[in-house]
Amino acid sequence: MKKTLKFQLFGNPKIYLADQQIFFSFSKINALLYYLAVNQSISRDEIAGLLWPNKSEQSARKNLRNTIYQANKVLGDDYVVSPNKSVLQLNEDLPVQSDVEEFLSEPTEHLIKYQGEFLKGFFLKDSENFDQWTTRMRSIYEQKFVQNCYHKVSDDIANSRLDDVERNIQRLISIDEYDERNYQLLMRFYQDSHRNGKVIEAYYELVSTLKEELGIEPSDETRKIYEKTLEIVNRRKNYEENIESFKFFGRTQEIETLEANFDGFFHDHNFQSIIIQGDAGIGKTALSELVLNNMRKKHLLLNFTCFHSERFFYVASVA
Q: The sheet that has 41-43: what strands, in order across it?
């Protein structure tokens, strides 16, 4: 039975033969096979000039012949063949699979095949043209993934197929963490799924990213999505429970509670004093500053430092 040659070209590139990873003695062999896997058929002059741009034509051709020989030797069969003197291709009589080929055949259905940028971390230090080709293909495949991922997310939401929606939006965020549209899409999805805490979590993640990296705040559109969630939280609070019954199970719940109480204070409905307590170093101050720094309404902050030794002191009068 003929062994299947498999190419994993998205993410860190790997080559498998009969499900066993194959390693070659020098990277030019990998580069040749990667280029063939993508282009199917190439000219000898094209690949020789790509891999050995600083060599003479005769020397580059000699290196190419040796590279083909070494590749087939390690693979144990003639996977790289030459149907005529000027052309190279992968042997059509031997089974070959590629994640790039599967992805391109039906991108929307094979999003899972895109496991990261094309040939991540692979480069040839003495072949600028090959590296330029790699960069160009990375951009092409990434754009195709983003386009089809947006399409699939929209289609899945419209048809109530929600299992992969969150994961696919998170993949879009990982590609461009500064694109607010991805966060807006995620926040709206959480809103529609009645996961208000996750809306707040996503918003604060965006606030942190934009402030630390770009020194800017989220757009008004993003803020409106967030504020709509606060309105929902307040309505739920009014109908379901008093704010004293909120329990602090995690940072997202704490932020939601504080934000809802502040919103109630500024709109003069259903607010109370809140005490944040706990052992030293668990993040009480950081939590307070996080929420206060996010407030856009004008406010006066009074800050008092209290000591245990002064616990029996009292204010006689206030002028």
A: 41-43, 87-90, 80-84
- Per DSSP bridges, beta strands 41-43 and 80-84 are unpaired
Residue 69 inside a domain? The answer is: yes
Report yes or no: 80 and 91 within 8 Å, Cβ to Cβ: yes
**Burial tier of 213 (Cβ tally within 10 Å: 0-12, 13-18, 19+):** exposed
Which residues of the chain have a pLDDT value below 50? Answer: 239-249, 317-319
Chosen domain end from 112, 132, 152: 132
Output 81-84 pairs: Cβ under 8 A, ≥24 positions apart.
82/44
List, in sequence order, every residue forming a beta bridge with 81; answer none if it has no partner.
Answer: 89
Q: What is the pLDDT of residues 88-126, one digit of tens each?
A: 999 999 999 999 999 999 988 899 999 999 999 998 988
Interatomic CA distance for residues 9 and 98, integer angstroms = 7
Note down the domain range covering 107: 5-132
Q: Which residues contact 174 (CB under 8 A, 6 or more apart)?
A: none
Q: Which residues contact 130 (CB under 8 A, 6 or more apart)?
A: 31, 35, 50, 51, 124
